[in-house]
Each structure stands twice: as C-alpha cells, then as structure tokens.
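Supplementary Note 3. Input sequence used for the single-chain structure prediction.
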Amino acid sequence: MALRPRQWTKNLLLFAGIIFAAKLGDASRWLEAIAAFGAYCAASSAAYLVNDVRDASHDRAHPVKRLRPIARGELSVRAAYAVAATLLVIAVALVSPLGLASLAFLAGFLVLQAAYTLWLKHVVLIDVMTIAGLFVVRAAAGAAGVHVRISPWLLLCTALLALFLALAKRRGELVLVGGEATPGRPVLEGYSLALVDQLVSVVAACTVIAYSLYTFTARDSKALMVTIPFVVFGVFRYLLLIHRQDLGEEPEEVLLRDVPMLLCIAAWGACAAVILALT
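The predicted structure, written as discrete structure tokens, is reproduced below.
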C-alpha cells in the first residue's frame, strides 16, 4: 500500500512520553497521545507518497520497490500529491489542540523529512543519522503532546536504536543487490558490507550501554535495571536475523513477524510498565 501502514509502527514512539512518565491512568493524556500518534501516521504517509513520486523511475529498477503502487502505475502522481496534501491537513488538525510545542515538533519533522527526501538520503552516513533524528523528534513530540518531561537518556537511546536499525537496513539493501549499488540507491556506493557491519556492531554496543546507564541513573526507579536483559536479547536477536537470514532491509517486517522478537518487546514493555506503575 502506498501509505505504508506497516511503517506506522515507528510512530509507537509517540507513546514513550506517557509510558515513562508513569501517566498510564490519565485518560486525557491517552487521548492526547493517540491524537499525536494519528498525526504522525498521517504525516509519515504523506512523506512516503512524495518520496515514492520522486523515486518512481528508480523504484522500477529495484527488485522490491518496483511493486509499490506509484512505481507500478496504479496510483497517479496527481492523486498521490492530493492524498499527501489531505494527510498533512489532517496531521496539523490533530496536533493543533496539543499546543504550540507539538506544532513546532510536527513542523520540524516535516522539514527534516523533506530534507531527507530531497537531498540528505543521498549523503553517506548523514542519511542514517537523519533517520535517527526523525525518531528522536517522534519521541520528543510524544512527550510534548501529553505535556510531560522525557529523559535525555531515553532520547539518546532512541537515537542509537534508530541508527542501529537504519544501518541494518542499509546492510539489507547491500545484500539484496549483491553488494553493488543500484539506480534506486546511489548512496550505497559509499557503503560496503564490511563497513556497515562494523558500524552496526559499534552502535549496537552503544545502545545497550546507553540504556543501561539510563536505568542506573533513573530518578524514578532504578528497578528498571531488570529490563536490561530484554534489551540485550532484542539487540542480539536482531543481529542474528540480519546475519543468518539477511534480514533488515525492512525493519518493520522483522519486528512484526519474528516471534521471539515480539515476545521480547512485549515482555520488556510489560515489565517496564509494572515497575513504573508501582514506583
């Protein structure tokens, strides 16, 4: 589907603020968080439509992306732009009641997304760092939307985890094309499997360390340290999948289909929620 609903899983970060602020029993804040989630789903889909219009000719040469509706000619350029504009209006309408900060974060998200689509995705290393930045904006926007403070450590963990997934995605693309760049991804010319594997390992280690430091220094509850094994297993499991099964080009597919990964995420979420609620 052109709107890529599977990728809306990225926007679950909008709920990080209400969860880690332990406001799970506040119905009004849940409504605000849901509104923010809906807004970023709409904004993300609008960005995907514009991106697919610009990349249609390149996507037709890609073994997977050629199946996208715009690349196949099932969705016209005019219709794609019309839907994107409608989605942007919906996104703004949803976040407007949440305050100026939420509007500012949405504007920043759209500007950064546009910069990525038009230019940054073609710049080696900057491309994956921009993806990480978009995840950080989501997490911060979720906290702003429900008017709570989010720990800088959590923002750092978000950035590192997003960078880890983005690098794994680049690795998956390299494997898919046999290590050679394709017309659809000229930025791959700046990467190699050896380089990406080293970067993935470094960022994976930094992610685990940053999360551990967050739990050690958490003002609300140091009991969150018991969730560290879930994070370690999740990172290890993902590394196993991208090396043994050459997965990673579509992170959302891995997260939605791998049962051990799903169980790990569910266990981490349940454990963290209980600890935060009790403390």
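The chain is about 70% helix and 0% strand. Residues 179-184 have pLDDT under 50 and may be disordered.
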